[in-house]
Request: fold
Amino acid sequence: MSALAKKIAWVADVLMLAAILISSIFRDIGSERLYPADLRNRILGARLQKVGRSPYFYHWRPEDGLQYYDPLNGISPNVSNVTSTPFLHDLLIPICGLPQRSISIIWFILQYVMLAGMALFFICLARSRTEKWIVVHATFFFLLTEAWIDSVYCGQVYLFIAFLLSGTAFGLLRKPGRLNLVVAAIFASVLVLVRPTALVLFLPLLLFPKKSLDFLKASGGCLLIYGLFVLFHPKERAFWNDYRGALSDQVKVHQQMVDRHYPLTSFPPVNALEGFDFSTIRSYYRQHPATNHSENGNFFVLYQHIIHRTLPLPALGIIFFTILAGLLTAAFVRRQAQAFSWGSAVLLAMIFFMLADLFSPIHRQQYYTVQWFPLLLFAITVGRNIPAWIQCILIAGLLLNISNTNLIPIRHTVGEYLWLLSLILVAFAKPRPDWQR
Reply:
């Protein structure tokens, strides 16, 4: 290729990425204006905890005032729709007093900042210009996935979880040092406190006791300090006890063990709420009816779709732990044969986290899928060492998560499980030489 042709190709590439970014920003600004409904229960959780009230079994009454009103708080006569941990609500307390529209704008900006941060983490981990180039392109194309679109539209927090997962991997894969260890431990500890199922990611790291010991000590120390705070803080302890009880009720609701009730409308019986004009929003939806492309990617949902039978909860748990045990055993065998590196263990830890997500008994909407993003970027950084056919599976998964054609049933779910398969293959592929340290 001539120098002129290379320059033209480079300019065309930059223009394509700029077009994707600009169109995505304008699209997402439009979504944010339409009231990201799921952000509301996080704000209310923080507001209620700030005044010492538990949000997990809270139901609004008119005398409480509209600052505690959530029109979607009606999934059950008992449990509320608040599912985030008390720790996440604590993180939001400094800004929870702002009007929701202001918080929504802050969160909208932070989502793009976190996406750029994740890309930067893996650009730093990439070893060649080609890998860095692919990381950048994957980041821009991820803006086109239904997962990202749905996450912004709903005002969800799962991109924050993906950011924490990325930070953990970044700290573990950088050159050994106290600063990187502290970074990994802080990110991992916050991840566990925001998403307790993240505890499973520590398991594969135990295959490298010398490498993981300091990280496990630091992470355990952070969690112990917070645990002591909860133990000696009656309100915080009560919040966590309610959170545990609420999750049990949520499982019953999502597994159809109890009647599930939804509100008749997604909007409160007011024309405006904390900066959102619902009259305008309702008018917009009348002119532009929304199409829901979200799918529930849980294993039990996929099982029901294929087998046409309900998967009992004990069976779901047995299958999950059997898969974890099988992968750990395979990793141990390859480790003994010097064919499983530290980098492979970190990737397997991230896969364990996503397996816990897929095997959750609570329905996971499309926005959960943004949690795959750090795993995809991780796979890109080892692209030189994996066969082309595995790379094709990764790309197919991405295309299925971008596509909204009805010609392919459960296309987003199929894309997720293609990612799972390909990433497991990547974890057990020939390790990168620079990850053998």
The CA atoms of residues 130 and 258 lie 53 Å apart. The two ends are 38 Å apart (CA to CA). Residues 107-260+293-435 form one domain. Confidence is low (pLDDT under 50) at residues 262-267.
